[in-house]
Design a protein that fits this description.
This protein is an alpha+beta fold. It has 2 domains: 102 residues, no CATH class; 103 residues, Chitinase A, domain 3, CATH 3.10.50. Helix content is 46%, strand content 16%. It has 8 helices and 9 strands. The strands form 3 sheets. The protein has a 4-stranded antiparallel β-sheet with strand order 5-4-7-6, sandwiched between helices. Helix 2 crosses helix 3 and helix 4 crosses helix 8. The radius of gyration is 25 Å and the shape is flat.
């Protein structure tokens, strides 16, 4: 493929060996090439510094440990995160909800599905008592047979976009807009809420500190890889920088 890093050619066999690990991505070959090039940049730097490792992964880890320095999360940062994200540390929060799903399929144009869903939503805004009737008539979810009932749900149980809107609604509230997920378009209503208990800061301090430290470490790795890529002479492909760390 004509790839090289700092004057050293990358053999096609390296690409062929890595390619199976990226078959689930949108562009497997591009992701593979970027991964191999980034890995080569890191290994060259580790060897230039004279680092040791039992294998290539250990060598890259040794490089990160030496070159990436991040301060531990301090008390103020932890307290600020705690106050800004109370929902993360609320225990026992639960609600009962129902929905009407309008599934999007290749055989039915999205515009037609959306128009139908919007029409049903407007009908429910005018007559909320028709929810069960319309769920049985229109919903493509098995819950339609029981009026759209989803039962009791806790935060994080549903797909993110559905979950995010759901837990913003008050008791008895019908969402004023459709929710779009990978399953289709949803009309959502919360029937009952059970407010949770906010855990004390002391109980979650260690968890927050670990989360913030991990996030800082990942940012540090990303910045360091961008620096190395910017200094390297890479032939055969253009890299804007390191998109993801190569180690967890």
């Amino acid at each position: 493929m004509g790839l090289s890093v700092n004057g050293v050619d990358i053999d096609d066999s390296a690409i062929a060996q890595e390619l199976p690990h990226h078959q689930g991505s949108a562009n497997p070959l591009k992701e593979t090439v970027h991964e191999v090039v980034l890995r080569t940049v890191l290994l060259q730097e580790a060897r230039r510094l004279g680092l040791d490792g039992r294998d290539e992964d250990a060598l890259i880890e040794a490089l990160f440990e030496r070159e990436v320095r991040v301060p531990p999360a301090d008390e103020a940062a932890c307290a600020r995160f705690y106050s800004q994200h109370p929902q993360r540390f609320t225990s026992g929060e639960m609600l009962e909800a129902r929905h009407i799903l309008f599934q999007v399929t290749p055989s039915v144009p999205l515009e037609l599905v959306r128009d139908t869903a919007e029409g049903v939503l407007e009908a429910l805004k005018a007559e909320p008592g028709r929810f069960e009737e319309l769920a049985r008539q229109y919903s493509n979810c098995s819950s339609g047979a029981v009026g759209g009932q989803l039962g009791q749900l806790s935060r994080g149980q549903c797909v993110p976009e559905f979950d995010k809107l759901l837990f913003r609604l008050g008791e008895g509230e019908l969402a004023s807009r459709l929710v779009e997920t990978r399953f289709g378009l949803h009309i959502v209503q919360v029937l009952r809420r059970v407010e949770g208990r906010l855990l004390p800061f002391a109980a979650v301090h260690a968890q927050i500190a670990d989360y913030l430290s991990t996030a800082a470490w990942q940012r540090g790795i990303h910045q360091y890889m961008q620096l190395l890529v910017g200094r390297a002479e890479i032939g055969g492909v253009t890299l804007d920088g390191a998109s993801t760390p190569l180690v967890q």
